Each structure stands twice: as C-alpha cells, then as structure tokens.
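User: Can you help me understand a structure? I only have the sequence.
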Amino acid sequence: MSRLPLDSRSIESKKSAVSAMGEHRAGFVAVAGRTNVGKSTLVNLLVGHKVAIVTPRPQTTRRRILGIRSDADAQILLIDTPGLHEAKKQLNQRMVQTARRAIAEGEVILAVVEAGDHLNPGDRAVLIDIRALGRPTVVAINKVDRVPRAQLLPLIEEINRGFPGAEIVPVSARTGENVDELLATLKRMLPESPALMAADEYTDQTERMIAEEIVREKIFLKMRQEIPFSTAVRVEKFEDEAERKLKRISATVVVDRESHKGMLIGAGGGTLKEIGTAARIELEEILGARVFLEIVVKVERDWTRDPRKLAEFGL
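Assistant: Let's start by predicting it. Here is the structure, written out as tokens:
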C-alpha cells in the first residue's frame, strides 16, 4: 500500500520509457457521476480491493480516492470522486469542488449513470459537464441487474444522440455483469505506457486514512437522519506493534451538535460500541493484523461551516 502521493515528474519519465517488450497501457481514469449511482462499488470491483467505503446513503464519498489495478497488459489508476450534486451547504460545495478537480485529472473519463428507460436529469447534467472536457469517455450504465434488457435500448439511443463518440457499456457493479467488457474498453483508451506504480500497490491511501474512512462508513451504516452527514473522523494516534502483529488506533468522531453526540454514543455507550466493533473487524481484515480501536466523540460546533475545519478534514 503506497504511503506517498504520486510524483507527476516521475510519471512522465516512465511514460517516455515504454518497454520494448510489448504494448502496455497505463493512465488515469476519473470516475464521475451523481451521488449514489454506484461509483465506489464499481471502483472497488475494478480494483479487486476495497479502496472506497460504500453505503446506501448519498454523499458517502467526500474526497478523491485512488485505486490501482495492475494487469499484465495495462495498469489502470482509477480516481473515485464525490458525487456531483446541487450543493447548498459549504461541506457539500467543497465535495463538489473536489470532484470537479479530480475529474479533470483523468486521461479517460468513466461516467457512471443509472439504468432505466431514459437518462435521469442528474445523470444528463453530469454527462454534459464531462462532454465539455473533451476527454475520451466511457459511459457505464450501472445497475442493469435491476431492469429488463429491452428497457435499456431507449437509454442507449438517448446517450448516443446526446453524447456521440462516447463508448457505452452496460454493467452491474453489484453482480459483476459485463465488467470484463468495461475493463477491456478502458484499457483500449489508455495511452501506451509502462506501469506508473508498483504492481503490488492498490491505493495511495495511508493506513491512517483507511482507518478514518472505515470508521466513518460504519457510522453511515448505523446512524440515520442527518447525523452521518455532520460527522467527521480523525485518527489521533496510529501505532504499529509489528512484533505483536497489533495496530493501536485512537480515533475521534467529530459532530457539530451536542444532541448528535448523545445519539452517536447511545444508551450505555452501546451504539458507539457497535460502530467500533464493526470497524475493528473490517480493519483487521484489511490491515492483516489485530487491531485495538479506541473511539471518542467530540463536539466541534458548526464544523461543517468552518473553512479551516473543512480543510483540516481534507475537504
């Protein structure tokens, strides 16, 4: 797992030294779409590892996340992005800004839309934005397992009319249907290049960042109403006791109201204990070590409106 950000200069030097041993392709694919359309589920499936948290709640993804798939013939660097949506609150505005910057990094754009008999208005707005970038684009029609195949034909025709030149691939991120075709399409569109990252790397996130995201995922899955959207997670301490195969993690969950703190902790601390247990179990699987996880809840009033606090949480 990489601990350092990608160096653009080293990437360019690698691109200029394509191996003579046979054609190999590599490059950045920005994954774009509205909220809750299945981008993160699809990224995890394409990478073959869980690099992005997934919940049924909209606006789960808050920051740019890189997932890396390395095959013999190509290396795909997938940039998962927050969902594009009409943002009124400052937190949401920051998420949309993050998404737009990350999408612009893509040499290829993978636009994810939802299956149906016509384009959702939000999906159409995303495609119009992407079309303006003028990048090679693949439109993945996701959730095809939920609709009859004949129902997709008008949608495919609508995309062809409005976005000529885009490749269209119906898929299901949930079942894996037609994902091999999507992979083959993405690889064809990447530039010739040697691998840009080591073959055993699958993300640029640190273990600390992964821990923060997994705790936040469990909050989203456990809590209801507006509570998940007003929480952030900060790992205060991450100690690796290699000889004991143990990682000690201390995390703070930040909320913006006192009432939310009580609800998150729950009667006798029961709710927070459930969240912590679920996070610890998954972290042990991801990190390959025993995990001691300590979580405390802290009120930082109106942090979602404070530019400095938003920056502190990488937003």
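Now, to help you interpret it: Confidence is low (pLDDT under 50) at residues 1-21. The chain is about 35% helix and 20% strand. Let me know which part you'd like to focus on.
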